[in-house]
């Protein structure tokens, strides 16, 4: 069957530019033949990680829901804002909760990191910071990343990137990532035979 990709916009904001970037990536993945599950962090409401809460009640529903969506995909794309040159607390908190599950859902999954920001750097420092917990958990973070600068004016009305060069670069990154996932998933299937 087709590859299943979870594409997650990692901001809670209704007008999130990262949600818009996630939608565009989802469209590009569908065009390339993948089966896409598009989501935002708004769907996975969860409290701040608290060891006492975990001991008493286990994982909150939002974390369990995110775990389930991760388990159902072959790979995921995270579109995350950059806060103070690092990972937004919402994103780190979700990673911390989900990382408590066994088997650990982030392990061995391929991931592509993208970001959108009103700045001219496009939130790229946040993505470098995001690699640390994900790689620690064994996620195969794709070497290339994509950051959209001036994101508040970066989209056309139909959700494409205003800059044709950036649009092309995003499509190349997304399709190269998908090819890698496809080759790897096929290889693993051959090994299991
Ligand atoms: C920001 N923002 C920001 N942007 C950036 O490029 N580098 C940064 O270090 C920060 N730091 C930062 C800290 C905090 C606390 C906030 C609230 C915001 C701006 C951020 O990129 C902007 O709000 C984006 O629009 C957030 O992404 P969404 O919500 O549009 O997806």
Automatic annotation (TrEMBL):
A Gene Ontology term for the protein's cellular component: cytosol
GO MF term (any one): FMN binding
Pfam family, one: FMN_red
All copies of domain NADPH-dependent FMN reductase-like, residue ranges: 4-152
InterPro entries on file: Flavoprotein-like_sf, FMN_Rdtase-like_dom, NAD(P)H-dep_reductase
Superkingdom: Bacteria
Protein name: NADPH-dependent FMN reductase
Species lineage: Bacteria, Bacillati, Actinomycetota, Actinomycetes, Kitasatosporales
């Amino acid at each position: 069957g087709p590859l299943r990709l979870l594409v997650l916009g990692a901001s809670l904001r209704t007008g999130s530019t990262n949600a818009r970037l996630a939608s565009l990536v989802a469209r590009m993945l569908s065009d390339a033949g993948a089966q896409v599950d598009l989501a935002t962090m708004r769907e996975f409401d969860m409290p701040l990680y608290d060891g006492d809460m975990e001991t008493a009640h286990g994982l909150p529903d939002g974390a369990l829901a995110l775990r389930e969506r991760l388990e159902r995909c072959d790979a995921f794309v995270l579109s995350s804002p950059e806060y103070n040159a690092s990972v937004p607390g919402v994103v780190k908190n979700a990673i911390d909760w989900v990382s408590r599950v066994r088997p650990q859902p982030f392990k061995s999954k391929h991931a592509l990191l993208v970001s959108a920001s009103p700045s001219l750097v496009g939130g790229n420092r946040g993505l470098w910071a995001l690699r640390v917990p994900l790689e620690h958990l064994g996620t195969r973070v794709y070497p290339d990343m994509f950051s959209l600068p001036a994101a508040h004016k970066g989209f056309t009305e139909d959700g494409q990137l205003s800059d044709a060069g950036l649009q092309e670069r995003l499509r190349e990154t997304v399709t190269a990532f998908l090819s890698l996932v496809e080759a790897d998933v096929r290889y693993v299937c051959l090994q299991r035979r």
